[in-house]
Amino acid sequence: MSQVRATTVGKPLPGESGRVPAAGESGAGPEKAGVAQGGLPAALNVLAHEADALRQLHDSFADGPGGALLQRALDLLAAVTGRVIVSGMGKSGHIARKIAASMASTGTPALFVHPAEASHGDMGMITSSDAVVALSNSGETAELADLITYSRRWRIPLIGITSRRDSTLGNAADVTLTLPPAGEAGVLGLAPTTSTTMTLALGDALTVGLLERKGFSAEDFHRLHPGGKLGQRLLRVADLMHVGSEMPLIDGSAPMSQAIIEMSAKTFGCVGVVDAAGDLVGIVTDGDLRRHMGADLLAQKVADVMTRGPRTIGGQALAAEALLIMNERAITSLFVVDATQPVGIIRLHDCLRAGVA
Questions:
Q1: Per-residue pLDDT for 68 more than 70?
Q2: What is the pTM of this model?
Q3: Which pairs with CB-CB distance under 8 Å and at least 24 residues apart come from 210-213?
Q4: In the prediction, which pLDDT does 18 show?
Q5: Backbone angles phi, psi at 355, to 5 degrees
Q6: Which of 53, 121, 325, 331 would disulfide-bridge 182, Cβ 3.0–4.6 Å?
Q7: Which CATH number applies to 237-353: 3.30.830.10, 3.10.310.30, 3.40.1190.20, 3.10.580.10?
Q8: pLDDT tens for residues 150-159?
Q9: Domain 61-216: which CATH class?
Q10: Does 331 have pLDDT greater than 60?
Q11: 258: nearest Cα among 232, 297, 226, 307
């Protein structure tokens, strides 16, 4: 663009000499265009390179000594009664933060400790009931030295993740998980790319392995993720239902005049019908009133007007399931039961207000 503007306008733009560089010179048209066009292939090469590295990582831990080491690391972390301390410097530090956050959100108490800050007082965050996961591609990160020494002095379990088994970290750790020699991505092969991707994947492997080992459930996940879309999706019916005196209930032997009063007072557009044992046996809705409209409606027994066997749901069902049922059956309320006895009622608007969709 700068060449076209310089020649058509007649004078150079600010910062331009006005001379079109010759081919081979810095900023030359064909060479510069070639570099720009090479961006996409280079980006795709990185993805292919890192995907191949992840396959190598998988294979290195799938069986044999690698699998035994990964299992030992899981055993060690599962036995921790305190927290998992994850630490690393630079890019490894960013990965360490993510690993700690993932573990903490899936039932394994964990936190990130900056290795340099640990040397200036934050070592006090680490106790003898904890375990340390230290990340260093080279295994020689100077800032980790004090943390490694501290873990050895106080017999705190140490797991090292490094590409060099025969390194300071690799030799000091109780369990060393070694990254395969995949090399960094890109023409320079210097910036942390492949190594951090493998480290992150290995951290995810430990996280999910611990999650399943501990039997961490969707309900547990919701307890730790109450906010956001994910928390809304995992809401239970029991979290939203109306209970106790808020439920519109009436005995089947009562006259319809009382049923209409109960429906009007509770504003759910329906009333649940119970028998002498307290079991839900039917429901009276606005539609039932229209179908039985007549001069004797108010004098009729509730049991003669109700719809038997109404659709219900359990309190531990997901609120999204209740919303689906109400949408499919074109109803706005759903009774919640424990076995056959009503324990609550949930409305379509309760789900929508909570963000369930």
A1: yes
A2: 0.63
A3: 210/74, 210/77, 210/78, 210/103, 210/106, 210/107, 210/108, 211/106, 211/107, 211/108, 213/74, 213/78
A4: 45
A5: 85, 10
A6: 53
A7: 3.10.580.10
A8: 999 999 999 9
A9: alpha beta
A10: yes
A11: 297
